[in-house]
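A student in our group prepared the protein record below, which I am reviewing. What it holds is a sequence and that sequence's fold in C-alpha cell form. My question to you is simply how this chain folds and whether the C-alpha cells agree. Do not assume that whoever made the record got everything right. I have pasted the whole thing underneath without changing anything:
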Amino acid sequence: MSRNPLYFFSTVGAAGVGLMYGSVLVAAALALVSYLVFRVTARKEAEFLFGKFGPAYSVYAERTPPFWPNPLLFHDQAERRFSTKALRRTFTDGLYFLALFPAIETIEQLRISGMLPVFFTLY
C-alpha cells in the first residue's frame, strides 16, 4: 500500500499531537516538519535499497507509492512472516510519541503556574 507506512502514520501522529493540544497551526507545523524529515529519510533509504536490490527494487518502487497509502494495493494473505526484532524496534521508536504527552503537560503546567514564561502563543 505504501513504501513507508511508518512515516505516513508518524506524520499523522505528529499532527494529532498538535490537535490534541488545541492548535491547528501547531498540528500543521508538526505534520509539515515530520513530512519533510521523512521525505528526505525515505529518499536516502530508497537509494540504499536500490543499491542493495537493484532492478527488483525499481519495479517495486514504480508500483508502490512512497508516502500516501493506496488501499487498492492491499491484498490479504492467510499467513504473514515478520521479524520480531524489527517489530520491537518499531514499537520502541513509537514510544517517543508517548513521551511527548508528559513533556507537553509539564510545560503547560509550568506556564499556568507562572514558573515558565510564555514568550509567544501560536493560536
Observations:
- The first helix runs from residue 5 to 20.
- The mean pLDDT is 89.
- Residues 5-74+82-113 form one domain.
- The chain has one domain: 5-74+82-113.
